Amino acid sequence: MDVRDLSLAPKYIEHFETQGIESLYPPQEAAVEAGITRGERVVAAMPTASGKTLVAQLAMLSADGPALYVVPLRALATEKYDTFAELPDVSVGIATGDYDADDESLDEHDIIVATSEKVDSAIRNGANWVEAIACVVVDEVHLLNAHGRGPTLEITLAKLRRLVPDQQLVALSATVGNAAEIADWLDAELVRSTWRPIDLRTGVYDDGEVTFDDGTTLSIVPGDEPPTTALVADTIDDGGQALVFVNSRREAETLAQSLGVHGFRQAPDVAAEIGTGATTSTGQALAEAADGGVAFHHAGLRPEHRSIVERAFRERDLAVLCATPTLAAGVNVPARRVIVRDHERFTGDGYEPLPILEVHQMFGRAGRPGLDPYGEAMLVATGVDADALCEQYIGTEPERVESKLDSREALRTHVLATLAGGFAGDRAELDALLASTFFAHQRDAAELTDLVDEVLSYLDATGMIRRDDGLVATDLGRLVSRVYVDPLTGAAVVEALGTAATMDRVTTLTVLEIVCDTEDMSTQYVRTEEAGRLSEFAMRNADQFTKPVHDFEGNFQSWLATVKTARLLDDWIAGVGLPELDERYGVAPGDIRRLAERAEWLLSATEVIAEHLLTGPTPGIGAGQDSETEYEPVLERLRETRQALLDAADD
DNA sequence: GACATTATCATATAGACAGCATGTC
DNA sequence: CTATATGATAATGTC
């Protein structure tokens, strides 16, 4: 089908043509036939890089009103924003936690790009733009399967549908086994395709030979070097680039280092760009590797370094990229050859094989349309049975997408949000909403009953809801939902604030401890050698902590991780530099940045809760009724610390 | 006795969403 | 309380 045949305004057709898009790819054509331009609800299950973005654009441009594009990552939001912003006479807005147009003006846009959490938050807070949306496009719907974030997506979709019943919905998914089930849930037509714009062959390397799914083989006999090195060198000799996936940051770095000495490509400019101001060990290692045309990529990198690496690789200044799975799900960084060196990952429950879907996503990064003649992706069999590996991952169908809503964590926050947002005022209405979720479609909403009971009791006990006359969120409950923290965090903060308000010494360390000791803060790893020093530090500063250091109840070891995080952020605020922090705590620059960002967010949430405690009646939790309770000094310290954190980020 | 090889043991383990108030595409 | 690779240190082996 030709682009001209679409019932689209000429300016858009012209735009696509200048982009070199003249005819539709088969899966795009199928989506059009299914009615995406006629307002039909469609689920399109197709490989990455097979033209999903155009499918989305066709739906959004032909919709009768503003459109919303939902993504799972902030980085993807900016990527899509840039793409859509090029459309003629289309006003695009972006709504993510870090990068936010103001709420009021969002309804002036034709297209809004947002993360699923931001949409959830907007619904919770009754943002006016939400109900105006005529067409919702959900990118990567298969993330319904993800622990933690999957439930947010399905609840958000259920609520959106409730708010705007006649809204068009287009969901884009990776090719998963039960896409039909998702489509069925969404009352959408399923379009399924495995077509790719560039040939991809996948295979397994074992003992000097790669065996591909199309029957071909590739002989690569390594000398002394590891097979991965030989596989990399081979594609570079052939004029291609290689992307290697490994399972830890350290592996990514050491592999980059060992490959860097080959000097595959000279990239002094990239090295220089990274090198300027690269004071940390991570930064220096990166600059060094980049000099030889190799780089590594993981979440410990500073965002600036990350984007330099991504750009340099896209522009072919770098020959090899050694990456953790950040790159498989993130922005588009394709390479001719993808090598999945590690197919297992530590999960906290031993090493587990990577999900098929994830490996296929990695594979999908192989082949740059228009630049490479083909793409090839391979697993490396080292010490495992190559046949088993092949059987498991090559040409197989990914796992089914299964709702993860039946978890205490998910229900805790979403039950509260549902009550607080006015989606339900009693148990029957709550059950009705839950009955419209993917979980209910796939299993049975009745399976949630016990967990919901448990969660309601918890929310009642912590003063976030009242159950006397139906189900009603209290002021505190509405607040907790609005600032988007886990009820567990809310309760912990209320309790800690109560203690802090009776303390003589409330310092930056105190308020940092409060926010670091919550469910929403990621915990740090405490080395055994570090544990002694940390507990000594805790003893010495016992008067500044809300937890009783000397007669501690509960898990002291895990609280030390809290102390470590609080102390680290305290140092960061005090002006200690990234290299120093890296050395002292073994925390990479990118992690510091994220920790600071989260702490700042949680401090502001805590601030709101503290203000509530100050003015409103104290709920029946924690200390707080006696006359010595002083919230003002705590509040002041919270504000001060948050500001200090913001200032520290500027340097 | 100097040094190489091997046994033992400790260590560390992917990623990343959200609020609010201002002014940055 | 799960598993594996790595790096440091100790123990053993070789010339």
From TrEMBL:
UniProt keyword terms in alphabetical order: ATP-binding, DNA damage, DNA repair, DNA-binding, Helicase, Hydrolase, Isomerase, Nucleotide-binding
UniProt-listed Enzyme Commission number(s): 5.6.2.4
GO BP of this protein: DNA repair
Gene3D superfamilies attached to this UniProt entry: 1.10.3380.30, P-loop containing nucleotide triphosphate hydrolases
Residues annotated as domain Helicase C-terminal: 227-419
Record-annotated Helicase ATP-binding domain positions: 33-194
A Pfam family this chain is assigned to: DEAD
InterPro entries: DEAD/DEAH_box_helicase_dom, Hel308-like_dom4, Hel308_SKI2-like, Helicase_ATP-bd, Helicase_C-like, Helicase_Hel308, P-loop_NTPase, WH_DNA-bd_sf
GO molecular function: 3'-5' DNA helicase activity; ATP binding; DNA binding; hydrolase activity, acting on acid anhydrides, in phosphorus-containing anhydrides
Residues reported to bind ATP: 28
CDD domains (UniProt xref): SF2_C_Ski2
Reactions performed catalytically: Couples ATP hydrolysis with the unwinding of duplex DNA by translocating in the 3'-5' direction; ATP + H2O = ADP + phosphate + H(+)
Function: DNA-dependent ATPase and 3'-5' DNA helicase that may be involved in repair of stalled replication forks.
Quaternary structure (record): Monomer.
HAMAP family per UniProt: Helicase_Hel308
Family in the record: Belongs to the helicase family. Hel308 subfamily.
Name of the featured protein: ATP-dependent DNA helicase Hel308
Organism of provenance: Natranaeroarchaeum aerophilus
Protein encoded by which gene: hel308
